């Protein structure tokens, strides 16, 4: 049976993956995102929530979504400790660290490096930010999280990634120009942009972004809010 893999864009770095019927949500920040006002948080029911780090624009809706869905939350050790403090039951929290790979019902998830900072909304230490590589059937999907351009990305080039989710907004993460370099580092042609246009510092010229990716022979997807595509 062929893989049935798709993703829906919920704004900023929020994506709802459908891995053959299992729903995986990344970095839930919807209620306080003015660009995501058409997304109804109460209707989200993921099976898993993956946190790249604990800045508020990545975790603001975590507790509500977890409580209503019963989702299992996976994060680096220190961020996982913060998740527990939000009242998430111990058996619904998976902590792991760099080099670790989770074997989950839908496939595998490997934690990989991201160059960024991390603290929890209450100002506590949140550990080190991270990204994830999802291995689902024969598909390999890289979710970079918030990151600057880093040579660590070159470690992923031999994976033969099918898709990469890269921040392109600049200011807090790498910009569109560094994202083109990142795509070359990881040797992945199919890119989905994220972490742009949410706040004024990360507003970009989308036409310019499409141009520079096209000039580099890369397929850049800038999804509309709520849009789904097959992966």
Automatic annotation (TrEMBL):
Q: Which residues form the Metallo-beta-lactamase domain?
A: 11-195
UniProt superkingdom: Bacteria
* InterPro entries recorded: Metallo-B-lactamas, RibonucZ/Hydroxyglut_hydro, UPF0173_UPF0282_UlaG_hydrolase
Task: Kindly give the NCBIfam families that the UniProt entry links to this protein.
Answer: PRK00685.1 (NF001911)
Name this protein carries in UniProt: L-ascorbate metabolism protein UlaG, beta-lactamase superfamily
Species of provenance:
Sphingobacterium wenxiniae
- What does the record give as the organism's lineage? Bacteria, Pseudomonadati, Bacteroidota, Sphingobacteriia, Sphingobacteriales
């Amino acid at each position: 049976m062929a893989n049935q893999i798709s993703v829906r864009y919920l704004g900023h770095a929020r994506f709802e993956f459908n891995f053959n019927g299992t729903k995986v949500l990344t970095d839930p920040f919807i209620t306080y995102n003015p660009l995501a006002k058409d997304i109804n948080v109460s209707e989200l029911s993921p099976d898993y929530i993956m946190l790249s780090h604990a800045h508020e624009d990545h975790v603001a809706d975590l507790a509500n979504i977890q409580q209503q869905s019963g989702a299992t939350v996976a994060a680096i050790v220190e961020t996982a400790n913060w998740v527990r403090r939000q009242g998430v039951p111990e058996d619904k929290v998976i902590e792991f660290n760099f080099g670790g790979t989770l074997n989950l019902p839908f496939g595998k998830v490997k934690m990989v490096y991201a160059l960024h900072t991390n603290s929890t909304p209450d100002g506590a230490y949140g550990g080190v930010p991270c990204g994830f590589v999802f291995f689902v059937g024969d598909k390999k999907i890289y979710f970079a999280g918030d990151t600057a351009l880093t040579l660590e990305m070159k470690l992923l080039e031999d994976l033969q990634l099918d898709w990469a989710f890269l921040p392109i907004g600049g200011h807090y993460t790498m910009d569109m120009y560094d994202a083109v370099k990142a795509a070359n580092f990881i040797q992945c042609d199919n890119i989905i942009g994220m972490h742009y246009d949410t706040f004024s510092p990360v507003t970009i010229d989308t036409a310019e972004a499409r141009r520079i990716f096209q000039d580099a022979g890369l397929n850049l997807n800038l999804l509309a809010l709520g849009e789904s595509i097959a992966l």
